[in-house]
Amino acid sequence: MTSYDLIIVGGGIGGSALATVMARAGRSVLLLEQSLTYQDRVRGEWIAPWGVDEVRQVGLYDLLLGAGGHHLSRHVTFDEGRDPAAAEAEALPLNIFRPGVPGPLCIGHPKHCQTLFDAAGAAGAETLRGVTVTEAVGGAAPHVTFEVGGETRTATARLLVGADGRTSQVREAAGIALHQDKPHHWFAGLLVEGAEGWRDDLQAIGTEGDFGFLAFPQGGGKVRVYGGYALDEARRFKGDDGPRRFLDAFAVSCSPENRHLVAGRPAGPLFSYINADSWTDEPFAQGVVLVGDAAGWNDPIIGLGLSITYRDVRIVSDILTAGDDWSTRAFAPFAEERAERMRRLRFAASLQAAIDMEFGDAARARRHSYYDRGAVDPSLKMHGIAVMAGPEMAPPEIFTEDHRARVLGAQA
User: Fold this and answer.
1) Count of domains observed in the chain
2) 8 Å CB contact between 184 and 212
3) 8-state DSSP, 357
4) Is the pTM here over 0.90, yes or no?
5) Which of 41, 49, 110, 292 has the highest CB neighbour count under 10 A?
6) Is residue 349 part of a domain?
7) Could you report the per-residue pLDDT of 277-335, keeping only the tens digit for each?
């Protein structure tokens, strides 16, 4: 075929998920992926409970479970000056945020991508790997020119979908502006193997000294770990021994369990990047719609990249299967919902970063004050509801400067 209902550029999680859903709905789909093999990109391995709901709604939950996905059931917040045993005794159960959802769902990123890409092909989509897109054009006659297997091809479609990540070629071709806020800290991630002592059901976050950490078990002794550090330390973990020094930074007294991480071995690359949020005002143009990171992304401090992507897939696929109106007018509700969703999550992430990824005496005192006051006034922790249960589940007043002042102990 050279003409399709949809051409999807980017065969990662968002693109392959949308291709699967639309092919199952009987639409003709061309899915183009640049890579020949999915690599560890230090992202996309944790789905929040509200994201798990989105996965279920698009009919992909059983597929991910069958591919090795597993749920986490407990969350512990560690911190310098807090007794680790007390922190563990206050572990948060993770089955309380969405009815019928046991907790966040974890699955390795390369396996996740391959599972969905294969599912798209099985559903009837034409799937191509090793593709170089040389031209992507929206407008009244969307089309893509690409090279694959030594040949140049041009295909047309009713709609071109950009699912091609943060540096989206489709977004740029469509002239859709990307906004970005100021970075707050560095964030680095690494997959660790040989950490069998870390419990498979436990996710954790903590701050000690000049380092903030997060850990999400992937099963089989593998744990995805993240670390945050100050913006003026760009070279902190550079060099051939960077991954080892990064793991050594997890040796903190506030979380004795971290010894299992330190004893582990790097099982993939160490990537460091600034934490800044990015967003688009309208993730569509004539003949084009964007999903996932191509449409803008959230600070990874709250880990919602996959949840955001799956909601994008669900809303866009609902629009495309509801009728034959695939005009820009049809995507206006998507843009409206996504703009408010990302605004709320941007706010929640900025609060979490101020709490967990700022260092020094003043930051430590503010963090401990927040924990003490939050034990008496749970409303101070309501931004966590937006993270785990969904941004629409927290009251609107949570996403205001007055609330920020309350949380951080400043004067409103």
Assistant:
1) 3
2) no
3) S
4) yes
5) 292
6) no
7) 999 999 999 999 999 999 999 999 999 999 999 999 999 999 999 999 999 999 999 99
